[in-house]
């Protein structure tokens, strides 16, 4: 399949039919999901559409009567506080700008590229999370046909990118843990799951290098509550040992802390634990969770703004927009309790 073709605004259903060597009616049936075509024809049409990067203009029929933009938002899932905060920030800002939002979840989609292309026919632009759950070809499939904003992903040519700073704050919070005298420090989270976790692990490694120590390999687990609980069970069973954990998000950190304390371990006495995100619960648990404050709602709002600017033709910078993060010290790391900064 060709991947180097440059999309043009003149690509039409006629172009797809010519490339595939079939009738326009056959192309229409395939793109509408009809089963009244052979598998061979369906493959030829979809390959032609891929090569030409064709996005059907179904939404264009309503342009004469539509008075506001529709923005697509593609997320891996909605579990946990991160995605809900991101969605609220994105949707709230869209509402202020008079835009509607169409949400799509990657979870459970067998052909995500096709699903995103179909979503693109209903919206004026899309924002997507930079995650292993949303592969690169999903982003590049719309290259040149609709404005795309990538959230928390690696910068790509001609694709707007909005992200939070990760490496510096991860190095800072890891160095803080090491200064408490901890010698067996583990990083919880899979760097392959997305650029943000990868960069947090890079900061973890950098902090060890600065202290002339060797960083442990990451404990590659998903960033979900149940996975934190399962990890804690392994520690209680003696399968793993550590005196400090640097968790890639608060959901993991809080789940591990809860289960270890139920199992008779003390935090931070036996084990120091730090997280990432600074969710609301982090300031109310005992001990308070030391973490990195990431403005997730602001991240969603900025992505919505950036997409609106691209759709309306406003002049925007080509450089990725990076939002600062900050370390929040509470007492799960071993520091004495103090007035909460949040």
TrEMBL record:
Record-linked InterPro entries: HTH_LacI, LacI/GalR-like_sensor, Lambda_DNA-bd_dom_sf, Peripla_BP_I
HTH lacI-type domain location: 11-65
Database matches in PROSITE patterns: HTH_LACI_2
Pfam families in the cross-refs: LacI, Peripla_BP_3
Keyword Transcription regulation carried by entry: yes
Keywords (A to Z) from UniProt: DNA-binding, Transcription, Transcription regulation
Keyword RNA-binding: no
Any one GO molecular function term: DNA-binding transcription factor activity
Record SUPFAM superfamilies: lambda repressor-like DNA-binding domains, Periplasmic binding protein-like I
Name of this chain's protein: LacI family transcriptional regulator
Organism: Pedococcus badiiscoriae
